[in-house]
Amino acid sequence: MKILGVGIDIVDKMQVAKLIKKDVFGHFLKKWFTTEEREYLLKSKNIVNEFSIIFSIKESFIKASSGNITLKDMKNINVSKFNYKYKISYTKDEKFSLDKYYMITNSAIKSLVISSVVILEK
Q1: Is residue 116 within 8 Å of residue 60, measured between CB atoms?
Q2: Which CATH number belongs to the domain containing residue 94 in this structure?
């Protein structure tokens, strides 16, 4: 497998906790997260942690795309969780995803979430 891109992102959970308390949080969710992600986050028992993980995975994916995907495309990136694993789907350009495999890692410590995405050729 050939590595096509690597992206890493760190989110400060304390900053996320502050954002959640602000009136603009709903607007932020609508602007940057898909409907599926918003529904998942609003049902989450630990919204700060899950928000931090999903946001850092999305940011890592953008960085790993080597400029093919930009911040404007963030709402077209869907991060879902199934059986304790996160999965990425990109809905704007299906051709981009056809021949690629995404490897996601993340680690959450007390105050930070660190995620990485590696885009590999299938």
Answers
A1: yes
A2: 3.90.470.20
Number of neighbouring beta carbons within 10 Å of residue 32: 17
Query: pTM of the predicted model, to two decimals?
Result: 0.93
Task: Give, rounded to a whole angstrom, the gap between the first and last alpha carbons of the chain.
Answer: 6
Q: Based on the number of CB atoms within 10 Å of its own CB, is 110 exposed (0-12), middle (13-18) or buried (19 or more)? A: exposed
- Domain count of the chain? 1
45 lies in which domain range? Answer: 3-121
Kindly report, residue by residue over 62-85, the tens digit of the pLDDT. Answer: 999 998 899 999 999 999 999 989
3-class SS at 48?
helix
Average pLDDT (7-28) is: 93
